[in-house]
């Protein structure tokens, strides 16, 4: 794998532009951090006058993309093993070829969805206050995630590291809304990889005792309205829960294809 630099930026953008929804993390990180810095690096395999594949590193999380069904997944997998990548994500068909080279990892399949116009849900109950999250809310958000089965293992394993990463996201390429009751955080939704055209919604979570009150839908809708009002053309998210999918479709999201996480 060859490390890329700022001089390669336009060629990278041309390569990923064909499928912008699946490459939203590339666009967001390049726009905010560039091609080569402490937080972000991009690596490539060459294929004649183009790339065979690209690998984006953000902290210790990696995204893999290739235009080609026969890309050299073996070399990419070896590269990721050597780097002890904690999480690898990307378009389903790309990671399908990569997964056998990363044995012992958990593979999670999701659907990537896209929204261009938001449909407002019914308002949340009046006892909940919804507001934008600040970087100083990072610790409270991580504390909430540790109480949610889907997120608990990851956020308990390295709590301080996750707080630091979330603080960075809320300070740079992301935003968030939280629903509070009596001053305590009850539900959250975040964006990451925000760029001039799009954003990815992540970390949608509600504490069990506050579910079925429309909080998640209101938080996601609020983030979508904020981003679209700032001039973004669309937002994406991925999910594997049919109930969540129903909520997202009611807000205006439509499925684009499979997205995979290996960790």
TrEMBL record:
- N-acetyltransferase domain residues: 128-263
What is the native source organism of this protein?
A: Papillibacter cinnamivorans DSM 12816
Superkingdom of this entry's organism?
Bacteria
What's this protein's name?
Answer: N-acetyltransferase domain-containing protein
Question: What Gene3D superfamilies does the record point to?
Answer: 3.40.630.30
Pfam families linked to this entry: GNAT_acetyltran (PF12746)
Q: Which InterPro entries match?
A: Acyl_CoA_acyltransferase, GNAT_acetyltra_YdfB-like, GNAT_dom
Picking any one GO molecular function of the record gives: acyltransferase activity, transferring groups other than amino-acyl groups
